[in-house]
Amino acid sequence: MDNFGLYVILTRPAIGHVAAAEIAVRRGVRMLQLREKGMPDGELLRIAREVRAVTRGTATRFIINDRPDIAALCDADGVHVGQDDLPVAEVRRIVGDRMIVGLSTHSVVQATEAQSLPGVDYIGFGPVYPTTTKAVPDPVVGTTLLKKVLGFSRLPVVAIGGIFPENIAAVIDAGARNPCLVRYFMEPPDPAEVERRIACVQRMLA
């Protein structure tokens, strides 16, 4: 799998999931993940299907966080799992070979192990900076370890955690080609502002 550029995660978007997905598709975002931990299954499936309807037939690949069952039910393009979720081998038993499978890593050891783990298409690495997106965040890895992982990873690496315009230059300088921003895109209540922010980051990556 090749590098894909900006990675957008939908987590409680102020403008709504569908509107945010429409902007991501319009801006040509190639990876869009739905991450709504704690949401009731029925609601999660409904939103997943609504977002899938937006991304279907476009260049935007739709990824479901944590839930291979929901990914299969909404015919997503892939699923992303963490270290404490189902093992990748078990995820593959549910979604088969056609879906993309991403794996979160939070240390050089985990990132190294992921390189030889069958069925992994890309890894997330972070949090690069302190973040409040997760209730119990993992220890900050910083740009030095990020650069180290980028130096040996045969898999695309999504740099994630506490990334904003004011610090993204250091992330890019470390070699990251697939940064992920969450709060910066999810917080604005104005769709035009969300689109402006996505476009701004895309220009930084150009």
TrEMBL record:
Keywords assigned: Magnesium, Metal-binding, Thiamine biosynthesis, Transferase
Textual note on the cofactor: Binds 1 Mg(2+) ion per subunit.
Pathway entry: Cofactor biosynthesis; thiamine diphosphate biosynthesis; thiamine phosphate from 4-amino-2-methyl-5-diphosphomethylpyrimidine and 4-methyl-5-(2-phosphoethyl)-thiazole: step 1/1
Residues reported in the UniProt entry to bind 4-amino-2-methyl-5-(diphosphooxymethyl)pyrimidine: Q33, L34, R35, E36, K37, N65, S104, K134
Source species, domain of life: Bacteria
A Gene Ontology BP annotation from the UniProt entry: thiamine diphosphate biosynthetic process
Catalytic activity: 2-[(2R,5Z)-2-carboxy-4-methylthiazol-5(2H)-ylidene]ethyl phosphate + 4-amino-2-methyl-5-(diphosphooxymethyl)pyrimidine + 2 H(+) = thiamine phosphate + CO2 + diphosphate; 4-methyl-5-(2-phosphooxyethyl)-thiazole + 4-amino-2-methyl-5-(diphosphooxymethyl)pyrimidine + H(+) = thiamine phosphate + diphosphate; 2-(2-carboxy-4-methylthiazol-5-yl)ethyl phosphate + 4-amino-2-methyl-5-(diphosphooxymethyl)pyrimidine + 2 H(+) = thiamine phosphate + CO2 + diphosphate
EC number: 2.5.1.3
Top EC class, one word: transferase
Cofactor: Mg(2+)
Thiamine phosphate synthase/TenI domain: residues covered: 16-183
Single GO MF annotation: thiamine-phosphate diphosphorylase activity
Alphabetized HAMAP family for the sequence: TMP_synthase
Family: Belongs to the thiamine-phosphate synthase family.
Protein task: Condenses 4-methyl-5-(beta-hydroxyethyl)thiazole monophosphate (THZ-P) and 2-methyl-4-amino-5-hydroxymethyl pyrimidine pyrophosphate (HMP-PP) to form thiamine monophosphate (TMP).
The protein's name in its UniProt record: Thiamine-phosphate synthase
Name of the encoding gene: thiE_2
